[in-house]
Amino acid sequence: MNLSNLLSVTPYPALSAAIWLGLLVALLYLARSSGHKLILVFCRTLHDAMAHTADALTRTEAQLAARNREVLLAAGREAKERIIEREFDRVAASVEKDLGAYPRFQRELSESIVRIEEDYQKTVDVPPEPPGWVKAVDAVAKIDARNNNLVGDILADIHKSLVKAHEHAMDEYRGASRKRHELLRGMMPLWRSIQHNLTHVNKNVESLLDRSRSIDRHMQEYEEMARGTDRALQVLSSSSLVQFFISAFVLLVAVGGAAINFSLIARPMAEMVGGTSFIGGFQTADIAALVIILVEISMGLFLMESLRITRLFPVIGALADKLRVRMIWITFTILLFLASVEAGLAYMREILMQDELATSALLRGGDVIENDFAWITTAAQMGMGFTLPFALVFVAIPLETFVHSLRTIVGLLGIGALRLMGLFLRALGGTFQLAGSVLIRLYDMIVFLPLWAELTFSKRGDSNTDIYPEVR
Amino acid sequence: MKRMLAILGVGLVVGGCSEPGPRNTGVYLLLDTSGTYTAQLDKAEQIINYTLTRLDGEDSFAVARIDTGSFSERDIVAKVTFDDRPSAANGQKRAFSETIHSFLGGVQPASNTDITGGMLQAVEFLNEKDSGRKTIFLFSDLEEDLQEGYVRDIPIPLDGFEVVALNVTKLTSDNIDPREYLDRLEMWRARVEGEGGTWRVINDLDRLERLL
Questions:
Q1: Interface touch A271/B87, C-beta < 8 Å
Q2: Which residue in chain B is spatially nearest to A350 when comparing CA positions?
Q3: Burial of B168 (0-12, 13-18, 19+ CB in 10 A)
Q4: Do the chains contact at A276 and B6, CB–CB below 8 Å?
């Protein structure tokens, strides 16, 4: 039954429409109470569904936040443990290296002190003994020599002997002084050695004190993390965000390096695997070049894991030291081999380009332009081909940071998304509830005529008529 | 960079898909060596060398002359399928160019022009090579002049072929009545397209980048 059929119940479409409208209004008026309830139930159901979903989302958000908090704290604790562990390693190394030499220092110091003491004893200034016959000489000297020639001769001889003895005593004294000075001069290096040793010891002790202060600080932070304080969480969150962006930037740089590496080896790779075979719509040579780069990156990851610089694969970190060292050598050898292959391919690339240029020039009827500086390009390409694989090894470090910080970032984004969805659903639920009231009033607008009549008649009998009993 | 990422992403996804059809190109160049047209052959070398620069590994290229009876392998001057190693392909290109150069230096004018026979030979050659893209270059004035007794009023199976007429020169009679030239071009276009092929004319040899 279409509209034209409906409008043809009477010869006048307007009349037919009026009849149908009247019937509709009468029907709606009769079913008003049920209609209101239906609208209300429908809207309330939608509102409740939205509210329950929003509650569920809030609970999920809380769980995710708790999970994120755990992840963040666990990551922070792990990082801090690593730092503290390394600090202790450094302290141990320092103790082993520096304090291990303390017995030697002590022996050297003791020897130096003994030697200084001995030298000091030797440098004691012994006053020259006064000659025993000085009094006799004094008595003889009082005799008047002018009346006695014999006395004069004796005095002259005594004087001569005295001068000689004096000179001899002076020579001895000078010799002894010189010896003492030499001994004192010889003490200088011993003093310096003692000073040097003591400075060294002081430096070591200060270094140890610095390290112990650093360990104290890290331990305090670790304790805060262990307690799960908000401050620790805030620090870790901001640190994680910073690490995420920095590592993403470094990874982008690494991707650029990998792209350059790719362009260096993709073309000459065609000489090895052919330039016209395809896998899934892509040249096999391109795929082979990409595989080489990916293998290099994988080897770099394994090398970094074996060196215990990164901890992406716990299995490698847990290997026995002997096996781990073997793995270091194996991965390094593979990397070296691949780097050599890349250098060769880079050289091949230059040869191919020159060959292609020569062929093109020949076919176009031009002359081949000899470039005297082509060796610079070739050498640069080979150097890059050899260096880039080793440079890509270090991708492992930002990659590890990126992966770890990504967990936090994804968690934060998830929390944000859930919160937004919850808010949206609550708002939507509220809108549905409001829409229920609006729809009831719209309903009544359609049946306003019989409703007005009902109100008019009922007012005569009862002035407290409630036209919206369901809404309350 | 984009290519690398595309390979990384898409290559892994579609790696296991079915093998796509052949991607190589097959080019067959027919050289008109009839009396009036031999003066134009120096231009042909330019076209051949340019074509060589545009072809890659596993592409096929053959140059054949149009003479009295062109439906014959003997009319193929040089043919090659390039190695998929770029260095080897470059060597083949140089050798091919030298062969063509020596041929064009001593070419003898033919008394008749059997274009249809040459095209049939081209179709046969390119179908044998099973190239993904099949192109026939027609270096001729398109004036067919068959010897008596030669039957060439036969269909040429050109479905999937691209026919490019190059350097279609005007004959003296064309200058008198240009309709003859236009009719000749139209006749060949209708014949090629009627057989399912595509038809192009390139007379400006300074713009060969449209060739392939």
A1: yes
A2: B87
A3: buried
A4: no
| Nearest CA-CA distance, residue B205 and chain A, Å | 13
Q: Which residue of A has its CA nearest to B88?
A: A271
Shortest distance between the Cα of B27 and any Cα of chain A, in A, equals 17
pTM: 0.65
Compute CA distances A86 → A97, A214, A311, whole Å.
16, 11, 14
Q: Tell me the mean pLDDT in the region B93-99.
A: 93
Structural domains of chain B, ranges and CATH numbers in brackets: 26-210 (3.40.50.410)
CA distance A53 to A417: 14
A231-260: pLDDT as tens digits: 888 888 888 889 999 999 999 999 999 999
B78 CB neighbour count, 10 Å cutoff: 18
CB proximity B87 to A under 8 Å: yes
Question: How many Å separate Cα B3 from the centre of its chain?
Answer: 32
Average pLDDT estimate for A10-32 = 89
Q: How far apart are CA B57 and CA B84, in angstroms?
A: 4
SS3 category, B79 = strand
Q: Cα Rg for chain A, rounded, in angstroms?
A: 51
Answer whether A286 sits within 8 Å of B7, measured CB to CB. yes
How distant, in Å, are the alpha carbons of A122, A125, A177, A196 from that of A187? 12, 17, 15, 14
Which residues in chain B touch residue A354, judged by CB atoms under 8 angstroms apart? none
Give chain A positions within 8 Å (CB) of B23: 276, 278
- Single-letter residue type at A358: A
Sketch the domain layout of chain A as residue ranges. 98-227, 230-364+375-394
- For A287, nearest residue in chain B (alpha carbons): B7
Q: What is the pLDDT of residue A77?
A: 86
C-beta neighbour count of B60 within 10 angstroms: 21
Q: How far out from the chain centre does Cα A235 lie? A: 14
Q: What is the ipTM of this complex?
A: 0.74
CA distance A358 to chain B (A): 9
Q: Which of A262, A276, A358 sits opposite B24 (nearest CB)?
A: A276
Q: Which long-range contacts (CB under 8 A, 24 or more apart) does A225-232 make?
A: A225/A73, A225/A76, A225/A77, A225/A80, A226/A77, A228/A69, A228/A73, A232/A73, A232/A76
Is the pLDDT assigned to residue A140 strictly greater than 80?
Answer: no
Counting every residue written for chain A, the total comes to 472
Residue of A272, A276, A278, A284 to mutate for B, most B C-beta atoms under 10 A: A276
pLDDT at A226: 84
- pLDDT tier for residue B210 given thresholds of 50, 70 and 90: confident
Choose the closest CB to A362 out of B7, B87, B94: B94
Q: Which of residues 112-151 of B touch A (CB under 8 A)?
A: none
